[in-house]
Amino acid sequence: MELALERFSYRFAEGILDQKAEIKREIEEILLRPGSNILTFSSGQYVEKVSREFGEKGWERKPTYVDARGDLSQVMDFRKERVGVIFALSRTSSPKDVLGFQTARLSEDTEVDVGVFIVASASLQRQLEKAGKLWEGPDFEAARKGLSMAEYGSAMTVPVYLLGLTLREASPPPLDLNALPPAVISELILSFLENRYGARVLKGVRVSGKKRVLEFDGITRIEGADVILALEADPSLSTFPSRFRSGKLGDLAAMVREYQEMAGRKVRLRLVLLGDFSGALIEQMVGKKGALPSWAGGVEVDHEAVPMAEFLAYLEKKRKELME
Known about the structure:
Shape: elongated
CATH architecture of the largest domain: 3-Layer(aba) Sandwich
CATH class of the largest domain: Alpha Beta
Strand order of the largest sheet: 1-8-7-6-5-2
Radius of gyration: 30 Å
Number of helices: 10
Number of strands: 13
């Protein structure tokens, strides 16, 4: 489990905070620092811990102003660079505590451009209760409704960035393709193509030729032709062998030609280009439009570009499906 944040932006608050990126990052890093250990804290202990860090980062603690009666009035927990922070995690907290940011506009010493209102999600409150730690105060949904339904009417004009502390399953680390064996990468690319084509792809095909074994990454049938798939990846995938960079495309074409003679039917060679390939490089591989490349030896050749981002998104989707 990992500590995370639910977010809601009132009156374009997130856009304002994005212009203060360092402040935004600082707030979120401090709030998330306790991690899953939050289950061992009371709300008071949590606020004490993160408040110490806010203070160390130069945030003004409990800014106040002198009201009309001459009394000191506290309006928020922390303030820095015209960004305010209020914690609503205790038994006495209310969704209307957010109005402290509005009151702060009565003085230049406390006025803010945007307020950050911090609550716990209902699910975190339940998890903490099971752990023997009772966190009270409004949950995220109650605070969100108070803002989104304009419960406070015209009285609330300050932009508010609502953050809800919550626990969720830890995200798996990003997939590092270079850590995978080339055979596994090839299998994954061909599975991606199978999904894209909606047609079966034979993977790692070996065919007995006249004097040798013909080896192909994959073969599928498209529009009545056998399409032999040859996988090429850009240099960022350094562990994946390249026929083009090793000068072996001619050997591949010869095997395709031999396969075509044996099969006695239409065959096409398709270079599947995974990643970022410049137009000039593609032209070197597959020739100018309407002309076969010199290495093809009469074999019909085309190519298919597969953006790396699209391939990685497919893998991430599959990984999530397996985890469900």
